[in-house]
Amino acid sequence: MADRGALKLVGFIFATATLAVMLVAGIVVKSYADGAYTLEASTVEASR
């Protein structure tokens, strides 16, 4: 059976990774809601 110290370390690593993913997802969603990102391809007009 694993000791409690190792389980606490593994839990801390997983909790940190989960928090980082949630933070990045929140930033992306907020940026998309503010209009920084768009899902459609933007057209670029060529000037002659």
Describe this structure as you would to a colleague.
With 48 residues, this protein is mostly helical. 65% of the residues lie in helices and 0% in strands. The model has no long low-confidence stretch (mean pLDDT 87). The chain crosses the membrane at residues 6-29. Keywords: Membrane, Transmembrane, Transmembrane helix.
What portion of residues belong to β-strands? under 5%
Q: Report low-confidence residues grouped into runs of 5 or more.
A: none
Structural class: mainly alpha
Roughly how many Å apart are the termini? 73 Å
- H-E string: H
Percentage of residues in helical conformation: 55-70%
Question: What topology emerges from the helices and strands here?
Answer:
Layout lengths: L3 H31 L14
In a few lines, what is going on in this structure?
Keywords: Membrane, Transmembrane, Transmembrane helix. This protein has 48 residues and is mostly helical.
Characteristics of this structure?
1 helix; 65% helix; 0% strand; membrane; transmembrane; transmembrane helix
